[in-house]
Design brief:
Length: 372
């Protein structure tokens, strides 16, 4: 429909609602509904943010407001679990990546914006939230009562396995994660020689782009392509490389030394359905550059660039302006990464890195078969 015809249709419908509908409707409500509807057929992440949504985006949660420790996205009009943080109420309650959340406290989540779903999950510490979920491939729904609580998980941890292989677990990605990873690697270097490294990105959600690029760059040869973005705007088309001098220009960049062995030690990367967004960028960069083999299960498939455009003091839009592409040119979003070798996923997050971790056993076996 041409723009002029579309405007005329909108004004005609708006006028009929104001004059013919059986009861008065505030014009602002009609316009807001229209603006929200514009995004319904774009993607599950783009949205119009009214005053409540925009205020929520800009505000800091109240000190006594906590959640259940879950990262969500939207798919098919419903909130979907990306990952549940270790030792969080969500993880202890059994939520897993790709679980659909159908109801929160009796309220259907169908067609609800992501910001509203997240608001409903937050509340006072010690209070309960009732959720109904459905797992892909299962007809039966699950009812869960989770107790909101504050919790902490370290960004990274490591241990030396009996085989002489180092195990390095990434839990969350923030500006502090790359220096923590380097510190953990230096601990593993005490083993002489370090036979290899298993980088565990299972259930690791996204994070700010700069530390994501830095984390990948530490293990790659200088200048290697990490990820590219593709969109219609000139600034949406960029290529990001493993260049430490550029990363040091960002505010808050840590200047601790990067161990040279990080770019040479044989590597395998563990992935699963909870490996999402920034973690997928890292995994694809290491895989596509021939730096590591991926072991585990297919990743989540979340890789878009979103931009907030302010419309007024009380409103804005959140719009997808670009997609991430791997060094080999594959699109991450909606596709995910297929591992080079399938391995069983974790039954419980607490099993990661232990003798009960079948995926780790397969990763170590694959690593020890690599040429040194």
């Amino acid at each position: 429909m041409p723009p002029t015809e579309a405007r005329q249709a909108f004004l005609a419908v708006y006028s009929m609602i104001q004059t013919d509908y059986f009861k008065p409707v505030p014009g602002s409500k009609v316009v807001t509904s229209c603006l929200k509807g514009m995004f319904k057929n774009l993607d599950d992440q783009s949205a119009y943010l009214d005053k409540v949504d925009y205020d929520d985006l800009r505000s800091t949660p109240a000190p006594d407001s906590v959640g259940i420790g879950v990262e969500l996205t939207m798919r098919a009009g419903l909130p979907v679990v990306i990952s549940a943080k270790e030792n969080s109420p969500a993880e202890l309650g059994g939520l897993r990546p790709k679980d659909y959340i159908l109801e929160i406290d009796g309220q259907s989540m169908e067609g609800v914006e992501l910001e509203e779903a997240l608001r409903r999950l937050r509340g006072a510490a010690g209070s309960n939230v009732l959720i109904v979920t459905r797992r892909p491939g299962e007809a039966q729904t699950r009812n869960m009562s989770l107790t909101r609580a504050s919790f902490r998980a370290s960004h990274a941890s490591s241990r030396l396995l009996p085989s002489g292989v180092g195990y390095l677990k990434v839990r969350t990605i923030t500006a502090d994660t790359p220096p923590e990873i380097r510190a953990e690697f230096r601990k593993l270097q005490a083993a002489k020689p370090l036979r290899g490294l298993v980088l565990d990105l299972r259930n690791a959600p996204g994070g700010p782009l700069v530390p994501v690029i830095e984390l990948a760059a530490m293990f790659l040869k200088p200048g290697s392509l990490v990820v590219a973005t593709e969109g219609r705007l000139p600034e949406s088309n960029q290529a990001m490389h493993a260049r430490r001098d550029e990363l040091l220009k960002y505010e808050g960049a840590k200047t601790d030394p990067w161990p040279e062995e990080m770019t040479a030690v044989p590597m395998v990367v563990l992935v699963n359905a909870g490996t999402a967004s920034g973690a997928e960028i890292i995994a694809s960069a290491l895989g596509d550059n021939g730096r590591a083999k991926l072991v585990g299960t297919k990743t989540f498939g979340r890789g878009i660039v979103q931009t907030i455009r302010r419309l007024s003091e009380d409103s804005a839009i959140k719009i997808t302006t670009a997609y991430y592409r791997t060094p080999s040119g594959k699109r991450i979003h909606g596709e995910g990464l297929q591992p080079d070798m399938q391995a069983p996923d974790l039954a419980r997050l607490q099993d990661a890195g232990t003798e009960k971790d079948e995926g780790l056993s397969k990763a170590v076996a694959a690593l020890l078969q690599l040429p040194t």
